[in-house]
Design a protein that fits this description.
This protein has about 170 residues and is mainly alpha-helical. The chain is about 60% helix and about 5% strand. The chain contains nine helices and two strands; from the N terminus they run H-H-H-H-H-H-E-H-E-H-H. Helix 1 runs antiparallel to helix 2, helix 1 packs parallel to helix 4 and helix 1 runs antiparallel to helix 5.
């Protein structure tokens, strides 16, 4: 997660902790320089950050846990903690990443992929580059292709029988 994204999510936690959070959090976030900066770089990331407040506004019972989670994010040290653990992963891994995403920077995805023993990194178009339905189709197709390349067709069909949105065409 980029420094800007961590700062923005830390700001969301602070705004949600305010006494008048219901009436002020959204407006204060919209007026913040950090959200405007992220919105210029990646509108999807800004929408996700806004969504953190909207989730709590629609489900106030989640407020305390959301604040706690959001406050922990800025403290994360990044990839340095993960290098040893990533090298120990023994299953095939797929990473989907979009260039220009400040919440999940492509450079981080590349670094993680380099440290995972059996990893495929696929660049996908950001949601803002196409409509959401086409974006989800691309994600589903990419995941389906990855699974088909790693699992025998019969095992894949059985595992995903209830997940009809992933196309399960026969493989040879």
């Amino acid at each position: 997660m980029s420094l800007q994204a961590r700062q923005a999510l830390g700001l969301v936690a602070t705004l949600l902790a305010e006494e008048d959070w219901r009436s002020s959090a959204s407006g204060a976030l919209e007026r913040s320089h950090i959200l405007r900066t992220i919105d210029e770089v990646c509108s999807d990331a800004a929408r996700s950050i806004r969504g953190q407040i909207q989730i709590v506004l629609s489900s106030p019972e989640r407020r305390e846990s959301a604040i706690a989670c959001l406050r922990r994010l800025p403290l994360a040290r990044g990839l340095d903690d993960l290098e040893h653990d990533l090298a120990r992963v023994r299953c095939p891994t797929l990473i989907l990443a979009a260039e220009g995403d400040p919440i999940h920077p492509f450079g981080y995805a590349r670094r993680i992929a380099q440290r995972l023993p059996d990893c495929e990194l696929v660049e996908i178009a950001p949601k803002s580059a196409r409509d959401e339905a086409r974006h989800l189709e691309e994600v589903d197709r990419t995941i389906g292709d990855f699974l088909r390349s790693k699992l025998p067709f019969q095992a894949l069909t059985a595992a995903l029988a209830s997940r009809r949105h992933i196309e399960l065409g026969e493989t040879t």
